[in-house]
Specification:
The protein has 14 helices and 18 strands. The protein is α/β, with parallel strands linked by helices and 463 residues long. A hairpin with a 2-residue loop joins strand 8 and strand 9 (198-202). The structure holds zinc ion. Zinc ion (ZN) binds at residues 27, 208, 233. Zinc ion (ZN) is lined by residues 27, 208, 233.
Length: 463
Amino acid sequence: MRIYNTLTRKEETFKPIEKGKVRMYCCGPTVYDYVHIGNLRTFIFYDTLKRVFEHLGYEVKQVINLTDVDDKIIKNSRERRISREEYTEEYSKFFFEDIKKVRVEPATIYPKATENIDKMVDIIEVLIQKGFAYKAEDGIYYSIEKFKDYGKLSGIKVDKGLSRIKADEYDKISVSDFALWKFWDEKDGDIFWETRIGKGRPGWHIECSAMSNRFLGDTLDIHSGGVDLIFPHHENEIAQSEAYTGKKFVNYWVHAEHLLVDGRKMSKSLHNFYTLRDLEGMGFDPLSFRLMCLDANHRDKLDFTMENLKRYEKTLNDVNTSFKLLERLSESNGAGIDKEIDAIYSAFDEALMNDFNTHAALAQFFKLIEVANSRIKDGKIGKSEKKNIIDKLRRMDEILDIIDKDSISQDIIDLAEKRKELRRKSKWGDADEIRRDVSNKGYSIVDLEDGGYIIVKRRKYAM
Ligand SMILES: [Zn+2]
Protein backbone atom coordinates (compact mmCIF):
# COMPACT_ATOMS: atom_id res chain seq x y z
CA MET A 1 0.00 0.00 0.00
CA ARG A 2 1.48 3.36 -1.10
CA ILE A 3 0.30 6.53 0.61
CA TYR A 4 1.16 10.14 -0.08
CA ASN A 5 2.04 11.59 3.30
CA THR A 6 1.47 15.33 3.69
CA LEU A 7 4.05 15.39 6.49
CA THR A 8 6.96 14.09 4.41
CA ARG A 9 5.55 15.28 1.07
CA LYS A 10 6.34 11.85 -0.34
CA GLU A 11 4.63 8.66 -1.28
CA GLU A 12 5.52 6.02 1.27
CA THR A 13 4.85 2.34 1.80
CA PHE A 14 2.30 1.89 4.55
CA LYS A 15 3.52 0.10 7.66
CA PRO A 16 0.96 -0.26 10.44
CA ILE A 17 1.93 0.23 14.08
CA GLU A 18 0.28 -3.05 14.95
CA LYS A 19 0.28 -5.86 12.39
CA GLY A 20 -3.01 -6.17 10.53
CA LYS A 21 -4.57 -3.14 12.23
CA VAL A 22 -5.14 0.48 11.26
CA ARG A 23 -5.84 3.23 13.77
CA MET A 24 -7.42 6.09 11.91
CA TYR A 25 -8.66 9.48 13.03
CA CYS A 26 -10.67 11.70 10.70
CA CYS A 27 -11.78 15.23 11.60
CA GLY A 28 -15.54 15.22 11.70
CA PRO A 29 -18.22 17.85 11.28
CA THR A 30 -19.11 20.78 13.50
CA VAL A 31 -22.80 20.07 13.89
CA TYR A 32 -24.18 23.58 13.55
CA ASP A 33 -25.68 23.39 10.04
CA TYR A 34 -26.25 20.98 7.15
CA VAL A 35 -23.00 19.68 5.72
CA HIS A 36 -22.28 21.04 2.24
CA ILE A 37 -21.14 18.93 -0.70
CA GLY A 38 -17.50 19.93 -0.12
CA ASN A 39 -17.66 18.40 3.37
CA LEU A 40 -19.46 15.44 1.94
CA ARG A 41 -16.66 14.79 -0.51
CA THR A 42 -14.27 14.53 2.44
CA PHE A 43 -16.61 12.17 4.34
CA ILE A 44 -16.92 9.94 1.27
CA PHE A 45 -13.13 9.89 1.11
CA TYR A 46 -12.85 8.87 4.79
CA ASP A 47 -15.16 6.00 4.00
CA THR A 48 -13.05 4.99 0.99
CA LEU A 49 -9.93 5.00 3.19
CA LYS A 50 -11.60 2.63 5.59
CA ARG A 51 -13.01 0.37 2.87
CA VAL A 52 -9.68 0.07 1.05
CA PHE A 53 -7.85 -1.01 4.20
CA GLU A 54 -10.61 -3.48 5.03
CA HIS A 55 -10.49 -4.80 1.47
CA LEU A 56 -6.78 -5.45 1.99
CA GLY A 57 -7.56 -7.42 5.13
CA TYR A 58 -6.83 -4.85 7.82
CA GLU A 59 -8.94 -4.41 10.89
CA VAL A 60 -9.72 -0.68 10.94
CA LYS A 61 -10.60 1.38 13.96
CA GLN A 62 -11.93 4.65 12.57
CA VAL A 63 -12.75 7.56 14.84
CA ILE A 64 -14.70 10.53 13.48
CA ASN A 65 -15.45 13.26 16.02
CA LEU A 66 -18.48 15.47 16.27
CA THR A 67 -17.71 19.02 17.35
CA ASP A 68 -20.78 19.91 19.36
CA VAL A 69 -19.67 23.11 21.04
CA ASP A 70 -18.24 26.22 19.37
CA ASP A 71 -19.05 29.91 18.82
CA LYS A 72 -21.64 29.30 16.10
CA ILE A 73 -23.38 26.54 18.04
CA ILE A 74 -23.59 28.76 21.11
CA LYS A 75 -24.85 31.75 19.11
CA ASN A 76 -27.41 29.80 17.07
CA SER A 77 -28.80 27.71 19.91
CA ARG A 78 -29.17 30.79 22.10
CA GLU A 79 -30.91 32.68 19.29
CA ARG A 80 -33.33 29.81 18.84
CA ARG A 81 -33.77 29.54 22.61
CA ILE A 82 -33.07 25.84 22.66
CA SER A 83 -30.34 24.01 24.52
CA ARG A 84 -26.98 23.29 22.99
CA GLU A 85 -27.81 19.57 23.27
CA GLU A 86 -31.08 19.90 21.42
CA TYR A 87 -29.54 22.05 18.72
CA THR A 88 -26.57 19.78 18.04
CA GLU A 89 -28.67 16.61 18.24
CA GLU A 90 -30.78 17.97 15.39
CA TYR A 91 -27.82 18.66 13.10
CA SER A 92 -26.05 15.44 14.07
CA LYS A 93 -29.16 13.61 12.93
CA PHE A 94 -29.09 15.45 9.57
CA PHE A 95 -25.39 14.64 9.22
CA PHE A 96 -25.98 10.92 9.72
CA GLU A 97 -28.91 10.99 7.30
CA ASP A 98 -26.82 12.69 4.61
CA ILE A 99 -23.80 10.41 4.84
CA LYS A 100 -26.07 7.38 4.78
CA LYS A 101 -27.63 8.56 1.52
CA VAL A 102 -24.21 8.56 -0.14
CA ARG A 103 -23.53 5.15 1.39
CA VAL A 104 -20.85 6.18 3.83
CA GLU A 105 -20.51 3.26 6.21
CA PRO A 106 -20.52 4.06 9.92
CA ALA A 107 -17.16 4.77 11.56
CA THR A 108 -16.18 2.66 14.56
CA ILE A 109 -16.85 5.53 16.97
CA TYR A 110 -18.30 9.04 16.66
CA PRO A 111 -17.21 10.67 19.91
CA LYS A 112 -18.68 14.03 20.86
CA ALA A 113 -16.38 16.79 22.03
CA THR A 114 -18.57 17.57 25.03
CA GLU A 115 -18.32 13.98 26.26
CA ASN A 116 -14.53 14.22 26.38
CA ILE A 117 -13.97 17.39 28.38
CA ASP A 118 -12.15 15.45 31.15
CA LYS A 119 -9.51 14.24 28.74
CA MET A 120 -9.03 17.76 27.38
CA VAL A 121 -8.56 19.10 30.91
CA ASP A 122 -5.96 16.37 31.62
CA ILE A 123 -3.99 17.30 28.52
CA ILE A 124 -4.14 21.03 29.20
CA GLU A 125 -2.88 20.48 32.76
CA VAL A 126 0.07 18.50 31.47
CA LEU A 127 0.81 21.17 28.85
CA ILE A 128 0.86 23.83 31.58
CA GLN A 129 3.15 21.69 33.74
CA LYS A 130 5.54 21.09 30.85
CA GLY A 131 5.63 24.80 30.01
CA PHE A 132 3.82 24.63 26.66
CA ALA A 133 0.71 26.44 27.85
CA TYR A 134 0.03 29.56 29.85
CA LYS A 135 -2.91 31.28 31.43
CA ALA A 136 -4.12 34.59 29.98
CA GLU A 137 -7.06 36.77 30.96
CA ASP A 138 -9.60 35.17 28.65
CA GLY A 139 -8.27 31.63 28.49
CA ILE A 140 -5.41 29.18 28.47
CA TYR A 141 -3.15 29.41 25.44
CA TYR A 142 -0.61 27.20 23.73
CA SER A 143 2.73 28.89 23.21
CA ILE A 144 3.79 27.86 19.71
CA GLU A 145 7.35 29.12 20.24
CA LYS A 146 7.84 26.41 22.84
CA PHE A 147 7.22 23.64 20.36
CA LYS A 148 10.30 23.49 18.17
CA ASP A 149 8.64 21.41 15.43
CA TYR A 150 5.79 23.87 14.95
CA GLY A 151 5.16 24.21 11.22
CA LYS A 152 6.46 20.79 10.18
CA LEU A 153 3.19 19.70 8.56
CA SER A 154 2.25 22.91 6.75
CA GLY A 155 5.75 24.19 6.05
CA ILE A 156 5.06 27.37 7.97
CA LYS A 157 7.97 29.03 9.71
CA VAL A 158 7.47 30.84 12.95
CA ASP A 159 9.39 34.08 13.34
CA LYS A 160 10.59 33.96 16.89
CA GLY A 161 9.18 36.72 19.00
CA LEU A 162 6.91 37.98 16.25
CA SER A 163 4.39 35.15 16.24
CA ARG A 164 3.84 35.94 12.60
CA ILE A 165 4.76 33.91 9.60
CA LYS A 166 5.74 34.19 6.04
CA ALA A 167 5.09 31.16 3.92
CA ASP A 168 3.85 31.08 0.35
CA GLU A 169 0.29 29.91 0.78
CA TYR A 170 -0.27 31.34 4.18
CA ASP A 171 0.96 34.85 3.57
CA LYS A 172 -2.09 36.54 4.92
CA ILE A 173 -2.60 34.33 7.92
CA SER A 174 -1.06 35.30 11.17
CA VAL A 175 0.38 32.51 13.19
CA SER A 176 -0.26 32.98 16.81
CA ASP A 177 -0.73 31.24 20.09
CA PHE A 178 -4.10 29.57 20.16
CA ALA A 179 -6.67 28.95 22.85
CA LEU A 180 -6.79 25.53 24.49
CA TRP A 181 -9.48 26.62 26.91
CA LYS A 182 -11.75 29.67 26.77
CA PHE A 183 -12.92 31.10 30.05
CA TRP A 184 -16.62 31.68 30.38
CA ASP A 185 -18.04 35.06 29.46
CA GLU A 186 -21.58 36.37 29.30
CA LYS A 187 -22.27 35.56 25.69
CA ASP A 188 -21.79 31.86 26.50
CA GLY A 189 -24.92 31.90 28.70
CA ASP A 190 -25.34 28.57 30.43
CA ILE A 191 -22.88 26.78 28.18
CA PHE A 192 -19.76 26.08 30.25
CA TRP A 193 -17.94 23.37 32.15
CA GLU A 194 -16.75 23.84 35.70
CA THR A 195 -13.29 22.21 35.73
CA ARG A 196 -9.92 22.15 37.54
CA ILE A 197 -8.55 24.62 34.97
CA GLY A 198 -11.48 26.98 35.38
CA LYS A 199 -15.03 27.60 34.21
CA GLY A 200 -15.28 27.64 30.44
CA ARG A 201 -15.17 25.55 27.29
CA PRO A 202 -12.52 23.96 25.09
CA GLY A 203 -10.88 25.43 22.00
CA TRP A 204 -11.47 23.49 18.81
CA HIS A 205 -7.97 22.05 18.30
CA ILE A 206 -7.71 20.40 21.71
CA GLU A 207 -10.84 18.38 21.02
CA CYS A 208 -9.15 16.32 18.34
CA SER A 209 -5.97 15.77 20.36
CA ALA A 210 -8.09 14.54 23.27
CA MET A 211 -10.41 12.26 21.32
CA SER A 212 -7.69 10.73 19.17
CA ASN A 213 -5.60 10.00 22.24
CA ARG A 214 -8.47 8.54 24.23
CA PHE A 215 -9.72 6.22 21.51
CA LEU A 216 -6.58 5.44 19.49
CA GLY A 217 -3.57 5.98 21.77
CA ASP A 218 -0.48 8.18 21.56
CA THR A 219 0.46 7.41 17.96
CA LEU A 220 -1.99 6.92 15.10
CA ASP A 221 -1.43 5.23 11.78
CA ILE A 222 -3.55 7.64 9.76
CA HIS A 223 -4.96 11.09 10.38
CA SER A 224 -7.16 12.55 7.69
CA GLY A 225 -9.03 15.73 6.92
CA GLY A 226 -9.64 18.28 4.19
CA VAL A 227 -6.63 20.29 2.97
CA ASP A 228 -8.09 23.39 4.61
CA LEU A 229 -7.41 21.75 7.99
CA ILE A 230 -3.63 21.38 7.47
CA PHE A 231 -3.13 24.83 8.92
CA PRO A 232 -3.76 25.75 11.61
CA HIS A 233 -5.90 22.85 12.86
CA HIS A 234 -3.64 19.87 12.18
CA GLU A 235 -0.48 21.83 12.91
CA ASN A 236 -1.96 22.69 16.30
CA GLU A 237 -3.07 19.11 16.92
CA ILE A 238 0.52 17.96 16.39
CA ALA A 239 1.85 20.65 18.73
CA GLN A 240 -0.62 19.67 21.47
CA SER A 241 -0.38 15.90 21.14
CA GLU A 242 3.39 15.63 20.76
CA ALA A 243 4.04 18.03 23.60
CA TYR A 244 1.63 16.01 25.75
CA THR A 245 2.92 12.49 24.99
CA GLY A 246 6.49 13.18 23.94
CA LYS A 247 5.87 10.80 21.04
CA LYS A 248 5.17 11.07 17.34
CA PHE A 249 1.47 11.80 16.90
CA VAL A 250 0.69 10.52 13.38
CA ASN A 251 2.59 8.32 10.94
CA TYR A 252 0.62 9.19 7.79
CA TRP A 253 -1.24 12.44 7.19
CA VAL A 254 -3.73 12.07 4.36
CA HIS A 255 -5.59 15.11 3.04
CA ALA A 256 -8.49 15.45 0.65
CA GLU A 257 -8.53 18.39 -1.76
CA HIS A 258 -11.27 20.99 -2.18
CA LEU A 259 -14.42 20.68 -4.15
CA LEU A 260 -14.97 23.64 -6.46
CA VAL A 261 -18.28 24.61 -8.02
CA ASP A 262 -18.02 25.83 -11.61
CA GLY A 263 -14.33 26.33 -11.03
CA ARG A 264 -14.76 28.56 -8.02
CA LYS A 265 -14.63 28.14 -4.31
CA MET A 266 -18.09 27.30 -3.00
CA SER A 267 -19.64 30.09 -0.97
CA LYS A 268 -23.07 31.30 -0.02
CA SER A 269 -22.33 34.79 -1.38
CA LEU A 270 -21.46 33.41 -4.84
CA HIS A 271 -24.75 31.45 -4.88
CA ASN A 272 -22.89 28.28 -5.71
CA PHE A 273 -23.33 26.66 -2.34
CA TYR A 274 -25.03 23.26 -2.23
CA THR A 275 -26.01 20.67 0.30
CA LEU A 276 -27.02 17.14 -0.58
CA ARG A 277 -30.60 18.17 0.15
CA ASP A 278 -30.35 20.82 -2.58
CA LEU A 279 -29.24 18.20 -5.10
CA GLU A 280 -32.00 15.84 -4.03
CA GLY A 281 -34.48 18.68 -4.36
CA MET A 282 -33.41 19.02 -8.00
CA GLY A 283 -34.13 15.33 -8.45
CA PHE A 284 -30.61 13.89 -8.36
CA ASP A 285 -29.82 10.48 -6.94
CA PRO A 286 -27.29 11.03 -4.10
CA LEU A 287 -25.29 8.13 -5.50
CA SER A 288 -24.55 10.21 -8.61
CA PHE A 289 -22.64 12.55 -6.32
CA ARG A 290 -20.88 9.58 -4.73
CA LEU A 291 -19.80 8.38 -8.17
CA MET A 292 -18.57 11.86 -9.07
CA CYS A 293 -16.42 11.92 -5.93
CA LEU A 294 -14.97 8.48 -6.59
CA ASP A 295 -14.01 9.51 -10.10
CA ALA A 296 -11.73 12.24 -8.74
CA ASN A 297 -8.64 11.36 -6.76
CA HIS A 298 -8.54 12.77 -3.28
CA ARG A 299 -5.43 14.80 -4.02
CA ASP A 300 -7.06 16.51 -7.01
CA LYS A 301 -9.56 19.30 -6.83
CA LEU A 302 -13.01 18.16 -7.83
CA ASP A 303 -14.81 20.59 -10.12
CA PHE A 304 -18.50 20.18 -9.50
CA THR A 305 -20.89 21.35 -12.22
CA MET A 306 -24.52 20.45 -12.75
CA GLU A 307 -23.69 19.18 -16.23
CA ASN A 308 -21.08 16.82 -14.79
CA LEU A 309 -23.46 15.59 -12.15
CA LYS A 310 -26.04 14.80 -14.82
CA ARG A 311 -23.41 12.87 -16.72
CA TYR A 312 -22.61 10.82 -13.62
CA GLU A 313 -26.27 10.13 -13.03
CA LYS A 314 -26.49 8.75 -16.56
CA THR A 315 -23.39 6.61 -15.97
CA LEU A 316 -24.77 5.37 -12.68
CA ASN A 317 -27.94 4.35 -14.40
CA ASP A 318 -26.12 2.65 -17.28
CA VAL A 319 -23.95 0.65 -14.89
CA ASN A 320 -26.96 -0.55 -12.94
CA THR A 321 -28.86 -1.43 -16.09
CA SER A 322 -25.91 -3.44 -17.39
CA PHE A 323 -25.60 -5.26 -14.10
CA LYS A 324 -29.28 -6.23 -14.16
CA LEU A 325 -29.05 -7.37 -17.78
CA LEU A 326 -25.96 -9.40 -17.01
CA GLU A 327 -27.69 -11.19 -14.17
CA ARG A 328 -30.52 -12.38 -16.42
CA LEU A 329 -28.34 -13.21 -19.43
CA SER A 330 -28.72 -16.79 -20.73
CA GLU A 331 -25.78 -19.03 -20.14
CA SER A 332 -24.01 -21.04 -22.80
CA ASN A 333 -21.24 -23.59 -22.48
CA GLY A 334 -18.68 -21.50 -24.37
CA ALA A 335 -15.26 -20.81 -22.94
CA GLY A 336 -14.85 -17.60 -21.03
CA ILE A 337 -12.08 -15.05 -20.81
CA ASP A 338 -11.30 -15.54 -17.14
CA LYS A 339 -7.72 -14.38 -17.59
CA GLU A 340 -8.76 -10.97 -18.86
CA ILE A 341 -11.35 -10.59 -16.11
CA ASP A 342 -8.81 -11.47 -13.45
CA ALA A 343 -6.33 -9.01 -14.93
CA ILE A 344 -8.92 -6.23 -14.72
CA TYR A 345 -9.60 -7.12 -11.11
CA SER A 346 -5.87 -7.07 -10.25
CA ALA A 347 -5.50 -3.68 -11.90
CA PHE A 348 -8.42 -2.45 -9.79
CA ASP A 349 -6.66 -3.55 -6.60
CA GLU A 350 -3.37 -2.06 -7.71
CA ALA A 351 -5.02 1.29 -8.40
CA LEU A 352 -6.40 1.43 -4.88
CA MET A 353 -3.08 0.42 -3.38
CA ASN A 354 -1.50 3.28 -5.27
CA ASP A 355 -2.54 6.06 -2.87
CA PHE A 356 -6.26 5.23 -3.05
CA ASN A 357 -6.51 5.99 -6.76
CA THR A 358 -10.26 5.60 -7.08
CA HIS A 359 -10.29 7.23 -10.52
CA ALA A 360 -8.09 4.46 -11.96
CA ALA A 361 -9.98 1.80 -9.99
CA LEU A 362 -13.27 3.04 -11.38
CA ALA A 363 -11.84 2.86 -14.91
CA GLN A 364 -11.24 -0.88 -14.34
CA PHE A 365 -14.76 -1.32 -13.06
CA PHE A 366 -16.09 0.35 -16.25
CA LYS A 367 -13.82 -1.89 -18.31
CA LEU A 368 -15.45 -4.94 -16.77
CA ILE A 369 -18.88 -3.44 -17.38
CA GLU A 370 -17.82 -3.11 -21.04
CA VAL A 371 -17.00 -6.82 -21.14
CA ALA A 372 -20.44 -7.52 -19.70
CA ASN A 373 -22.02 -5.20 -22.28
CA SER A 374 -20.40 -7.04 -25.16
CA ARG A 375 -21.83 -10.35 -23.87
CA ILE A 376 -25.23 -8.72 -23.42
CA LYS A 377 -25.02 -7.66 -27.06
CA ASP A 378 -24.15 -11.26 -28.04
CA GLY A 379 -27.20 -12.40 -26.11
CA LYS A 380 -25.32 -15.12 -24.26
CA ILE A 381 -22.43 -15.71 -21.90
CA GLY A 382 -20.39 -18.68 -20.69
CA LYS A 383 -21.61 -19.99 -17.36
CA SER A 384 -18.34 -19.68 -15.45
CA GLU A 385 -17.56 -16.38 -17.13
CA LYS A 386 -20.86 -14.92 -15.99
CA LYS A 387 -20.23 -16.04 -12.45
CA ASN A 388 -16.72 -14.59 -12.55
CA ILE A 389 -17.80 -11.18 -13.87
CA ILE A 390 -20.65 -10.86 -11.41
CA ASP A 391 -18.39 -11.94 -8.57
CA LYS A 392 -15.65 -9.43 -9.50
CA LEU A 393 -18.11 -6.58 -10.02
CA ARG A 394 -19.59 -7.28 -6.60
CA ARG A 395 -16.16 -7.33 -4.99
CA MET A 396 -15.24 -4.04 -6.64
CA ASP A 397 -18.55 -2.67 -5.47
CA GLU A 398 -17.60 -3.46 -1.86
CA ILE A 399 -15.46 -0.33 -2.22
CA LEU A 400 -17.29 1.68 -4.86
CA ASP A 401 -20.79 0.90 -3.60
CA ILE A 402 -22.71 2.21 -6.61
CA ILE A 403 -24.76 -0.86 -7.53
CA ASP A 404 -28.42 -0.71 -6.53
CA LYS A 405 -29.11 -3.01 -3.63
CA ASP A 406 -32.65 -2.38 -2.50
CA SER A 407 -34.76 -5.36 -3.40
CA ILE A 408 -37.71 -4.35 -5.54
CA SER A 409 -40.95 -4.76 -3.62
CA GLN A 410 -43.50 -7.38 -4.63
CA ASP A 411 -46.15 -4.82 -5.61
CA ILE A 412 -43.79 -3.31 -8.21
CA ILE A 413 -43.01 -6.77 -9.57
CA ASP A 414 -46.74 -7.61 -9.69
CA LEU A 415 -47.43 -4.41 -11.62
CA ALA A 416 -44.67 -5.16 -14.10
CA GLU A 417 -46.07 -8.67 -14.65
CA LYS A 418 -49.54 -7.29 -15.15
CA ARG A 419 -48.17 -4.81 -17.68
CA LYS A 420 -46.38 -7.59 -19.56
CA GLU A 421 -49.68 -9.46 -19.83
CA LEU A 422 -51.49 -6.32 -21.08
CA ARG A 423 -48.81 -5.77 -23.69
CA ARG A 424 -49.16 -9.36 -24.84
CA LYS A 425 -52.85 -8.63 -25.39
CA SER A 426 -51.90 -5.37 -27.18
CA LYS A 427 -53.66 -3.26 -24.55
CA TRP A 428 -51.11 -0.49 -24.91
CA GLY A 429 -53.08 2.23 -23.13
CA ASP A 430 -53.54 0.19 -19.96
CA ALA A 431 -49.92 -0.96 -20.13
CA ASP A 432 -48.72 2.65 -20.32
CA GLU A 433 -50.80 3.57 -17.32
CA ILE A 434 -49.03 0.91 -15.28
CA ARG A 435 -45.66 2.15 -16.51
CA ARG A 436 -46.56 5.63 -15.19
CA ASP A 437 -47.73 4.14 -11.92
CA VAL A 438 -44.44 2.28 -11.50
CA SER A 439 -42.55 5.43 -12.45
CA ASN A 440 -44.34 7.37 -9.73
CA LYS A 441 -43.19 4.72 -7.29
CA GLY A 442 -39.58 5.47 -8.29
CA TYR A 443 -38.84 2.73 -10.82
CA SER A 444 -38.57 2.32 -14.58
CA ILE A 445 -39.51 -0.75 -16.56
CA VAL A 446 -37.08 -1.34 -19.42
CA ASP A 447 -38.48 -3.58 -22.16
CA LEU A 448 -36.11 -5.99 -23.82
CA GLU A 449 -36.01 -7.40 -27.34
CA ASP A 450 -36.74 -10.92 -26.13
CA GLY A 451 -40.08 -9.75 -24.72
CA GLY A 452 -38.82 -9.67 -21.17
CA TYR A 453 -38.06 -6.62 -19.04
CA ILE A 454 -35.94 -5.38 -16.19
CA ILE A 455 -36.92 -2.98 -13.43
CA VAL A 456 -34.41 -0.26 -12.56
CA LYS A 457 -34.46 2.66 -10.17
CA ARG A 458 -35.87 5.72 -11.92
CA ARG A 459 -33.32 8.50 -12.28
CA LYS A 460 -34.42 11.88 -13.47
CA TYR A 461 -31.24 12.83 -15.31
CA ALA A 462 -30.64 9.43 -16.92
CA MET A 463 -33.49 9.55 -19.40
ZN1 LIG B 1 -9.75 17.74 14.01
